[in-house]
Each structure stands twice: as C-alpha cells, then as structure tokens.
Hints:
By secondary structure, this protein is of the alpha/beta class. It has 6 helices and 16 strands. Strands 8, 9, 10, 11, 12, 13, 14, 15 and 16 form a 9-stranded mixed β-sheet that branches. A 7-stranded mixed β-sheet has the order 1-2-3-4-5-6-7.
Amino acid sequence: xxxxxxxxxxxxxxxxxxxxxxxxxxxxxxxxxxxxxxxxxxxxxxxxxxxxxxxxxxxxxxxxxxxxxxxxxxxxxxxxxxxxxxxxxxxxxxxxxxxxxxxxxxxxxxxxxxxxxxxxxxxxxxxxxxxxxxxxxxxxxxxxxxxxxxxxxxxxxxxxxxxxxxxxxxxxxxxxxxxxxxxxxxxxxxxxxxxxxxxxxxxxxxxxxxxxxxxxxxxxxxxxxxxxxxxxxxxxxxxxxxxxxxxxxxxxxxxxxxxxxxx
Length: 263
C-alpha cells in the first residue's frame, strides 16, 4: 500500500527507490525479559528473520540497493550480551545477502553499537538523507519525474534546522505506534504506521519490527517522540495485520472506544 506517492508500506517496512527501511528491532529483548524474571520463549529472533525474509521475497521484482535500520537494532543499553552479539551479526548477514549497502541509524538503545558495526564494516550514522523520485504521467504519454529528499532519523530527538531544510519527508521510528481495537469484550493491540505533518513536512512513523513489543497505544498512552508532541488528530493510521488496513484519521478513532475489526 502507498503511504505517499513515492513510498510504499511492505508489512512492517517501507520501500522507496530501491531503499528498504525498518526500525526498532531490539534484538536481545527476550533475553532482557528473562533477566528480569519474565520467562518468555526465545523465539523472537527466528520470527523476525522469517518476517524479514518474507518482506525481501515480496520485493523480488524491485531492486533493493540499500537497507536502513532506523534505530534500536539491539536492546540492551550498557552491554552487549552473547545472544545480542551473535544474533545481531546474523541479522546483518541476512540483510547483506540482499542489498549492496546497509546503514544503521543510531537509536537511543544503540549506545555501544560500534563494535558490532565494525565487525561487518557497516555504517552507523545519526541520520541519512535519501533522494526519491516520483513519476507522473504528463500529456501525450510523457512521464514527468520529480525529485525530493527523505530524511531518516530515529526520532528520539529532533535534528538541527539545517538537516530539515531541504527535505520533504521525515521517517522516524522510536515511538513503536500501535492502536487497540475492540470487538465485543475483547481488545487487541495492533502495530501501525502513522502519517502526518511536522513543520509542514510529511512525517511517517514506523512501527517496531520486534515481534514481542506491540508498542505505544497512540489513542491512550504517553507519547515519547518529540516529533509527535503535537495534536495527532489529523495523522492517518495504517494498521498492519494479514495485510495493511487504512483506518483514516486518529481524531475519528478517538471519538469512540469501540472499533469494528478489519473490514
């Protein structure tokens, strides 16, 4: 599904102009929970690699030159556990088999990502600006190409005005957006994309790629990202389940606590 004319939602990822973007994988989260005394099966890594492979397979007709992890590749702040080290390298190797370049955007959980990135010669950046091309059909079967710039930044802090100056679209992670959907007495939470505006520019918020972390219920939970410290009523919601469902604007969902399940 197109979230913008030049940007497509593919499951929990975004794809545009041979670039694939995911965010908030939090490798090692289940080990972190185990250390806190919360026993969960260690199936997350297997599930996320299968999901990543399905996304890549679905794009076989589209070239992927670059894969960007838009922050929080790993979970632990102060250490790299053996599981994190091993699984993070395996995940990078999976991505490397399907693209030319991997870029890791530094998230708030990526305080000591350097040794892992160095091991695989992967770039770690605070942000990246990517050129994007939109094609429109003109008169007499002609094609008009319009170029724009997309800023990828994790979203836990707002970069300087210079970084925002020439971009038309900003893509962030960090928030892990989700919404709760009620069907009778049952309430389920679903990951979602958000699309709105920030200082007149398009703003897209990626859901977490982690299979255990459902996320922040944007209808009721405290919002974390400074990009989203605003009235979110006009933001559009795109729920990810068996496919992508466009739910309209948040302000319409906020008017009632009862939502119909997917139609």
